[in-house]
Here is the input.
Amino acid sequence: MPSDNGIPLLEMRNVSKTFVGTKALDSVELRAWGGEVLALMGENGAGKSTLMKILSGAYEADSGSEILIDGQPVTIGDPQEAKNHGISIIYQELSLAPNLTVAENIYLGREVSARGMANRKAMYAGCRDVLERLDVPFNARTIVGTLSIAEQQLVEIGRALHAKSRILVLDEPTTALSSRESERLFALIRQLRAESIAIIYISHRMEEVYDLSDRVSVLRDGRFVGTIERHDLSAQTIVKMMVGRDLSTFYMKEHDSGGSRGPVIFEAKDISDGDKVKPSSFQLHQGEVLGIAGLVGSGRTELARLIYGADEKTGGKVFINGLEVNIRQPSDALRNGLAYLTEDRKALGLFLDMSCAENLNIGVIASDSLQGGFLNLAKGKSRANSAFEQLRIRAASPMVNVGSLSGGNQQKVLLSRWLQIGPKVLILDEPTRGVDIGAKSEIYRLIDDLARQGIGVVVISSELAEIIGVCDRTLVMRAGHIVGEVGGPDKEAITQENIMALAAGADATLDAA
Here is the structure.
C-alpha cells in the first residue's frame, strides 16, 4: 500500500548475513508502507528470523546491506538504535519481567525517576492513555506475571506504542492464543494499521495471512523470492514460492490399515488421573495411525502423559502385545518400546544448549558405552549422520547446537531421538506445531513410513486437516472422556463436521458429566 509520495516507511536493500560457514541471507529485499500489514512467509530456516534480528539491531548485517526509513539510510547497530528509529519486534517468547507491574514493563529501560528513585506514580499516569487505547482488561499497577499470555502480549504492544513505534513486527503472535484471543488481536492489528503503523506479520497459518495481509513477501533458503499483492493471494502461489514446488507434490497418505488392520499392539484400559482424565480405554493396531482430537482442555495431552508415565495415574492398565506392562515413569515406557514426543519441544523435549548429535543419542547412550565406562563416540556420530540423512535435517552438521535450528528441524531431531530406541508404539503430541509447510510434509511422510513398517502411531493434533489427512481412525475427547470414534471399519467418516460434533458436545451425551 504505497504512500502518496511512493516512498516506503521501511526498505531493506541487498541485506546479507554470513555466519561461520553459512550464508543465512543473500541479498534480501523488503519494503513495508505505513498503514499496511505485510505478511512475511517462508519455511523454517528460510531467513525470516535472521532478517528481523538485523532490523532489530540484534545482528549486524554484512557490508553492502542497507536499511532505509522514510527513504533515508539509517544505521542500526543495536536494539536501542532500532527503538530510536521507531522499530519494535514482539517475538513468540515474550520479553517481559513477570515480577514487575504493567507500567514498569512499559517503561523498562526508560524509567521516570525523581531524586534518583523510580517515580512509579508518574509511570502509572504516563501509560494510562496507551492502555485505554488498547482497551485492556487490566491496569498499570497489575503485576505482569498474573496476566494471561494474550494479556502479556498486549503489554508488549503497549510498550511499543508508548515508545512511538511506527514499525511493528509480530512473530507468530497467535501460537499460544485461543480463537477468541486471536480474533481480539486481529481487531487490534486492523486498528493499528488504520493509524498508519507498518505491521510486519510473521505466520505459518495461511488463514491468518488471508485474513489480515495487504501483501505477502516470501523468503526461501535465505533469498527473497517475491511479493504478492492481496488480490493475487492463493495457497497454490504462496506454497510454490515458499518451497519451490507445486502444492500437488505435497504429502498424500500411502498406507491404509483401514481394510486390513494388523493385530492389536497396544491397549489402554480405564486410564485416569481422577481429575482431568476420566477412565479412558482404547486399542491401537500394528501399522495403524490413530488420531486423538478434541478442543483445548479436553484431556488429550493429559491422557498421553499418563500412559507414558510422565504424570501419575490413579487407575488403569497398559498392555503392549497383549501383555500388561507396569509404567510408572518414562523410563519404564521406553524400556517397553513406548515413546512419547511432547507438544513443547523446547521446554520439555530438547536440551537446547547441547548438540544435535547429543540430543539424538541421549535415549540410547547406554548402548554406546565401551569397556571402562567410556563412550563409543564413533558409534554415536554414525547414528547421528544416518538420522540427519534419513529425516533430511537441515544444519551445518550434527555437532551444532540444536537450539540454533529452525522449529521444523528441531522437531525432526526430537523425532529422531525416539526412533533410535526402535519403538513399537509412538505417541506424537502436536507433531507439526510451529513447523512450516515443507517440514510438515516431511513429518507426514515419516508418519506414513513408520506405519508401513508396522509401528503403531498415535497423533494428537489441534489441526483437524492434519487429523483427517494422516489418520486411519480418530478418537474424540471432551471433558476428559473419550466420547466417540470416527473412521475405521463401520464408523462415520473422519470429517471436520463429525469430529467437531463430538468435540463440542453436539450429541449432548455428556451434559451430566
User: Anything to note?
Assistant: The CA atoms of residues 178 and 339 lie 29 Å apart.
